[in-house]
Amino acid sequence: MDKFKKIRNASLLGVIGNLFLLIIKMIVAVMFGSSAMLADSFNSAGDIFSSIMTFIGNKISSKPIDEDHDLGHGKAEYVFSLIISVIMILFGFMLIKDTILNIIDKNNFVFSKWLIIVCIITIITKFLLFLYTNYLSKKFHNILIKANSKDHLNDVFVTLTNMIAILLSTINIKYIDQIAGIIISLWIIYAYFKILIESYHVLMDRSISLEQKEEVIKIINKYPEIVKYNHFNATPIGYEYQISISIFVDGNLSTFKSHEIADNLEKDIVNNIDNIYLAVIHVNPIKKENK
Questions:
Q1: Which domains can be identified in the chain, with CATH numbers?
Q2: φ, ψ of residue 238 in degrees (nearest 5)
Q3: Three-state DSSP class for 175?
Q4: Contact yes or no for 220/265 (Cβ under 8 A)
Q5: d(CA 128, CA 156)
Q6: What per-residue string of b and e applies to 99-136 under the rule 16 or more CB within 10 Å gives b?
Q7: pTM (2 decimals)?
Q8: Which residues contact 146 (CB under 8 A, 6 or more apart)?
Q9: Using one digit for the tens of pLDDT, what is the confidence trace for 228-286?
Q10: pLDDT tens string 114-148
Q11: Quick one: DSSP state of residue 188?
């Protein structure tokens, strides 16, 4: 499918771009002893891992329904997003610990124009990757590519913080590089914690939002033949939902007519509400006097 092919290509592009950034960041971080640049380089290492997980998760989630998976493999996206998030949060805490140790040991870095050049290269590269993955995220509503997109944009601000700290170090602001390293680490933790929570909710079969549920109810209310409804259930499959509803119609209606109402309702819900790919409507007769 076009969707999975484009997401796969975006993942591979992310690996290549971040590998390049990791190499140049690590070189200048070690050469000039910058804690902020070191944190930024670890961020790129995490991005490589994230892109690889996106590639694997996308490959699994693209598999069709089979005998063992009646609803497909869509939740693989969220399993891998959860894995990525946990590992990157641990990375963030490790970087904070190392930066604090640098402050205690009074390790200072040497300013160099190469630190600024690497920051500029990173900002341009990451912004271009953000534009591409953000486009795919909006087009395909895929949480893995959405996570990558947010990560690319976050990295623009992370590296901008790094560059500002490097420039401020030229006027001898004490520990500014280490402080920037801690800020970058906290940003990593915050960004991935949000993705972790989103993935957790889907894996725990969180229902559709109240706003979407109200949209479904509005569509149901457009059918005067429907006396009432109950058993409204929603199950997330990947980024989309399958919903099921029991409706009650006049028992005097023909079987054909009552099922025609259900079929039309299913089509209306799927065609008019984003992220609902399947609606299953159960029809029950009700006595006319019980309306």
A1: 2-203 (1.20.1510.10), 210-290 (3.30.70.1350)
A2: 65, -135
A3: coil
A4: yes
A5: 10
A6: beebbeeeeebeeeeebeebbeebbebbeebbebbbeb
A7: 0.62
A8: 137
A9: 888 888 877 656 788 899 999 988 888 889 999 999 999 999 888 877 878 889 999 88
A10: 999 999 999 999 999 999 988 888 887 666 677 77
A11: H
